[in-house]
Amino acid sequence: MSESSEILILNGPNLNMLGVREPNIYGCETLADIEELCNQRATSLGLTVNFKQSNLEGEIVADIQNARVTAAGIIINAAGYTHTSVAILDALNISELPVIELHLSNIHAREAFRHHSYVAQAATGIICGFGAHGYVLAIDAMARLIECAE
Ligand code: CA2
Which pLDDT score, from 0 to 100, does residue 5 have? Predict the structure, then answer.
């Protein structure tokens, strides 16, 4: 059980480019727009958000390790690392925090290599295909998970 009301929202490689290219797949919002949406939703639920993006696998692992003592739950869009990273899966399992896997696009309607997710094995649930609104849905779902754990 955590004393914290902070949700760590992690964004993996290339998500800093949102809104710049491929709006047909990922939407027209920038990552800064999405962070603002997350802050608004979290505040309305009495929660706070630590919103991060990294292009480096080791940095994401370190953020997950730190969350063990600072956060009540983790929402993660691991981007390309979703489909490759045992290290991120291990870190999520070690954290013992509730985890929600998130994707802007519906990964199951895309190329076969996106259908497998390592992150999924550590996640309570997965939200994908709703674009930026998925982040809001994930915060709502995390609020319930945190409440139930109290
Ligand atoms: O749909 C998602 O959120 C993904 O996690 C996005 C990843 C992709 O590898 C996953 O399979 C699904 C790619 C992030 C790349 O971000 C871009 C941003 C702007 C333009 C192009 C790519």
Answer: 95
Tally of domains within the chain: 1
Q: What is the pLDDT of residue 3?
A: 80
* pLDDT attached to residue 1: 45
138 lies in some domain: yes
CATH number at residue 107: 3.40.50.9100
Phi/psi class of residue 145: alpha, beta or left (left: φ > 0; alpha: ψ in -120 to 50)?
alpha
Pocket test for ligand 1, best of 83, 103, 137 (most atoms within 8 A of CB): 103
pLDDT for 28 equals: 92
Whether the CB-CB separation of 82 and 12 falls below 8 Å is answered with yes
| Protein residue with its CA nearest to atom 6 in ligand 1 | 79
> Is 103 tagged catalytic?
yes
